Amino acid sequence: MHDIVILGGGSGGYACALRASQLGLSVVLIEQDKLGGTCLHRGCIPTKALLHAAEVADTARDGEHFGVHSTFNGIDMTKVNSYKDGVIGRLYKGLQGLVKSRDITYVEGTGHLVAPNVIEVNGQRYEGKNIVLATGSYARSLPGLEISGRIMTSDQALTMDYVPQSVIILGGGVIGVEFASVWSSFGVDVTIVEGLPTLVPAEDSAVSKAMERAYRKRGIKFSTGVRFQGAQQDDSGVNVTLESGETLRADLLLVAVGRGARTDGLGFAEQGVAIDRGFVLTNDRLATNVPGIFAVGDIVPGLQLAHRGFQQGIFVAEEIAGLNPLTIDETGIPRVTYSEPEIASIGYTEIQAKELFGEIESYEYNLGGNGKSQILGSTGFIKLVRKKDGPVVGVHMIGSRVGELIGEAQLIYNWEADAQDVARLVHAHPTINEAMGEAHLALAGKPLHAHA
Ligand SMILES: Cc1cc2nc3c(=O)[nH]c(=O)nc-3n(C[C@H](O)[C@H](O)[C@H](O)COP(=O)(O)OP(=O)(O)OC[C@H]3O[C@@H](n4cnc5c(N)ncnc54)[C@H](O)[C@@H]3O)c2cc1C
After folding, report:
1. Which of 27, 151, 309, 415 has the fewest beta carbons under 10 Å from its own?
2. Is-contact 51 339, C-beta < 8 A?
3. For domain 151-257, which architecture applies?
4. Distance between CA 5 and CA 20 in Å, rounded?
5. Residues lining ligand 1, judged by CB closer than 6 Å?
6. DSSP assignment, residue 162?
C-alpha cells in the first residue's frame, strides 16, 4: 500500500509526485505517454519556442527601422522544429532526472481506476491510501468537424514541417491568437473566426479591443461574433462556411475551440467520482466526493494552465501529508497570452470588479510614456482596477514582453496592495516594469511620466 498513487504525469501529476516525495510519502506516478504531459510536449513549451522564432523573424524583418541592415528571407521549418525539439528534449531529460532522483515509483502504461483506492496498469494493481487523478485534457473539436488532413488542432500544428500560405483559425482564445501570431510573423495569411464578440474574450474589454487593433495593424484578419457552420477539405485547401453565409478558404483550418477533460473510460465515474461535462468536481481542497480521491490540473473545472496544475499538485501533496495548506485563490493565478503583443492579467476585469465590489476605480497607464517600450517600438498599456480607495483587484496589460511583468502584478493582487504601497517602491529605469510603478504612482494621485 502506497501513500499516493497518481494517475497522469503532466504538470499537475508530476508536481504532486515531487512534493509528496519531498515530504517523505511513498509515491507511484503512472504515465502512459511522456513525463511532462501536454505543457512540455504539446503545449506551453513548443508554442513559446515557435513564438520566439516568430519574434526573431519580426526582428529580421524590422531591422531597417532600427538602422540595422537585415532582411527576412523565409522560414526553414525543419530548423525551427529542431530548435523547438531541442528545448523540449533538454527540459524532458531534466524532468526525468528529477523524478528518477526522488524516491518515486514511475510506472509506464495506461491506468484505470478499478476501485476507489486502486489503479490498475497492464494487469498490475497499485493500491494507495490516496489517489490523485491528473489525466489532463485534449483538444476539442465541434460536432461534425473531423480532425484529419488539413483540419487540425494544436497537436498537429506543432509538428508541421512546412509553412502554409494561408490559415483559418477557429477560436480567438489564447491558443488561437498565439498560433495566429506565430503564423503571421512567418508570413502566413491568417484569419481568425471567433463566436464571441471579441478576440481574447476572457480578458478585460479594454485589452480585447487593444488586441484587435494590434492584430488589424499586423494584417491578421478576424471575424468575431460569428458562428462556424461547417468545413470541407479538398486536395488543395479547406472551405469554411459561417452562419453569416460567408465562406472562407485557406490551406489549413486550425481548430482551437478549447480543451475537454480526459476522464472518459478510465473508471472514474464507475467508482462514483462526480463528473460534470467530463470535468472532475472537487471542493476547494481538491478532494472529490469519494474519500481519498483528489484531482488536479486541467480535469478540474477552472483555468487550464500549467502553473495552476503545479500549485494544485503541491497543494494536494501537502494536504495528504497533513500540512493543512492554504487554499488556492483561482483569481490570483496569473494569465499570460504570449502573442505579439503579449497579454498578461490577474484578478478581476473592470466589469467583474464592478459586479463584485460596487464602487471601483480604474486607471490605464499608456506605454507611450515608458522609455523601454519606446525603445522597442511597442505600444500598449497597464490597466489597474481597484476597489474605491482600496486595494488593487485587477491588473490587465498588453504590449511587447508584458508577460514578464506578471510576477509583480501577482504580488500586488495576492497581497492586496494599495496603489500607495506600490507607488513607494522604486522601479528600475528604463524597464518595461517601470510602467507598473508609473501606473501605481498615477493611481496614488502622483503621476510622473503619465499624460492622462
Ligand atoms: C497549445 C497549448 C499551449 C499551452 N500554453 C500554455 C502556457 O503557455 N502556459 C500555461 O500555463 N499553460 C499552457 N497550456 C496548458 C497546459 O499545457 C495545461 O494546463 C497543463 O499541461 C495541464 O496539466 P495536467 O497535468 O492537468 O495535464 P496534462 O499535461 O495533459 O498531463 C496529463 C498526463 O496524463 C497522462 N494520462 C492521461 N490518462 C492517463 C491514463 N489513463 N494512464 C496514464 N497516464 C494518463 C497523459 O499522457 C498526460 O501526460 C497550453 C496548452 C496547449 C494545448
Report:
1. 415
2. yes
3. 3-Layer(bba) Sandwich (3.50)
4. 11
5. 7-13, 30-33, 37-39, 42-44, 47-48, 110-111, 134-137, 154, 175, 262, 266, 297-298, 304-307, 309, 338
6. S
Q: For residue range 293-349, list pLDDT tens digits in order.
A: 999 999 999 999 999 999 999 999 999 999 999 999 999 999 999 999 999 999 999
The CATH code of the domain at 341-443 is 3.30.390.30
Q: What is the DSSP string of 50-109?
A: HHHHHHHHHHHHHGGGGT---------HHHHHHHHHHHHHHHHHHHHHHHHHTTEEEEES
Q: Do domains 2-138+260-330 and 151-257 have the same CATH topology?
A: yes
Closest atom of ligand 1 to 110 CA is 42
Domain ranges of the chain: 2-138+260-330, 151-257, 341-443
In angstroms, what CA-CA distances link 30 with 42, 124, 203, 311, 352? 19, 12, 36, 19, 40
Superfamily per CATH, domain 2-138+260-330: FAD/NAD(P)-binding domain (3.50.50.60)
Retrieve residue 295's grid coordinates.
484531482
